[in-house]
Structure to design on (279 residues):
C-alpha cells in the first residue's frame, strides 16, 4: 500500500498514556513507513488502540511479528493449537477453559516473574461483556516521574521478588512463597531500553517483597508505590468493543482489569512479543 502512512491519525486517550490510531487496516501487510509510524506512537504513548479491526489469528500474529520475535505461551503451554496464542476468556473452547477467565485483576506487568518478561502484549477483542471487564493502564514512567526526589533516590538499586501465584493467593502477601511458582528478582525501577525513561517495575498483583528490607518496611514502601500507580491521573481505562486491538508496552506500562459479571461472555485473543531482561 503506497502512501498509507498519510491516512494514519493519532488521538491521545488520556493525559498519561494511550493513543488511538485510526486509518489502518491491520489485516493487510503494512508498509515499513506505516509500521514505523505505528511503532513511534507506541513508544511515545505506551498503549495503542485500533478500533473496528477484523483479524484472523494469522493476521494478528503477522502484525505482532513486526514488533519482534513472538513469545510462546509459557504458563499454560499446549492449551491451544498455536503456541503463540492464548485465549483470555471465560468461554470454554474445545472443552478447555481459557486463561485469566473471570473477575478483577490488580495492576501488573506481564511475566515479571520470568527473567525475560514479554516486551509487548496484544489483545484482540472477540467478545465483550455488556459492562465491566475494562482493562486499565497506568503509566509506570509518569508514576516514577511523580515521585519525590527522595523516594526516587531511595529506590535506586533496589530489587524486588515477583511471584506468579495469584491463581491461588489473595493480594495479601505472606512470607510463604510457593516453591513451584515461577518467580524472579527484578529492579524496582527499570530503564526502558528504547526511550531511556525510568519507570516503576513493581506491582500489587505479583511483587512479594523488596530484597533486603524487613517485611514492614518493604510493605510500606510497596504500598506507597501501588497507591501512586492506582491514581486516576496516571490511568487510561479501556472500555472494550468487539474489533478492538490493544497493544501495550510492558516495559513502561502496568495494566489491571475491572470486575465483570461471570454470567456474561468475554473473549480476547492474546499474543505476546519477546522481551529482554529488565535493568
Ligand atoms: C493479560 C491481562 C487483562 C484483561 O492478558 O495479560 O492482564 O483485561 N488481561 O483481560
Ligand atoms: Mn496481564
Amino acid at each position: 500500500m503506497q502512501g498509507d502512512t498519510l491516512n494514519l491519525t493519532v488521538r491521545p486517550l488520556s493525559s498519561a498514556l494511550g493513543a488511538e490510531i485510526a486509518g489502518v487496516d491491520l489485516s493487510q501487510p503494512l508498509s515499513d513507513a506505516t509500521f514505523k509510524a505505528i511503532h513511534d506512537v507506541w513508544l511515545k504513548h505506551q498503549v495503542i488502540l485500533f478500533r473496528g479491526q477484523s483479524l484472523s489469528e494469522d493476521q494478528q500474529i503477522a502484525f505482532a511479528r513486526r514488533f519482534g520475535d513472538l513469545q510462546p505461551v509459557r504458563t499454560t503451554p499446549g492449551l491451544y493449537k498455536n503456541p503463540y496464542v492464548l485465549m483470555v476468556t471465560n468461554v470454554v473452547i474445545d472443552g478447555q477453559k481459557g486463561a485469566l477467565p473471570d473477575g478483577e485483576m490488580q495492576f501488573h506487568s506481564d511475566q515479571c516473574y520470568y527473567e525475560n518478561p514479554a516486551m509487548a502484549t496484544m489483545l484482540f477483542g472477540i467478545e465483550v461483556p455488556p459492562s465491566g471487564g475494562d482493562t486499565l493502564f497506568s503509566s509506570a514512567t509518569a508514576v516514577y516521574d511523580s515521585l519525590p526526589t527522595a523516594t526516587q533516590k531511595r529506590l535506586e538499586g533496589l530489587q524486588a521478588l515477583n511471584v506468579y501465584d495469584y491463581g491461588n493467593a489473595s493480594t495479601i502477601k505472606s512470607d510463604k512463597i510457593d516453591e513451584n511458582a515461577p518467580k524472579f528478582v527484578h529492579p524496582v525501577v527499570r530503564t526502558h531500553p528504547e526511550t531511556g525513561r525510568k519507570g516503576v517495575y513493581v506491582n500489587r498483583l505479583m511483587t512479594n517483597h523488596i530484597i533486603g528490607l524487613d517485611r514492614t518496611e518493604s510493605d510500606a514502601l510497596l504500598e506507597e508505590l501501588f497507591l501512586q500507580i492506582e491514581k486516576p491521573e496516571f490511568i487510561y481505562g479501556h472500555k472494550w468493543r468487539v474489533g478492538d486491538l490493544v497493544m501495550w508496552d510492558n516495559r513502561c506500562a502496568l495494566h489491571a482489569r475491572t470486575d465483570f459479571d461471570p454470567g456474561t461472555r468475554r473473549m480476547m485473543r492474546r499474543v505476546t512479543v519477546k522481551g529482554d531482561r529488565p535493568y
The radius of gyration is 18 Å. DSSP finds five helices and 16 strands in the chain.
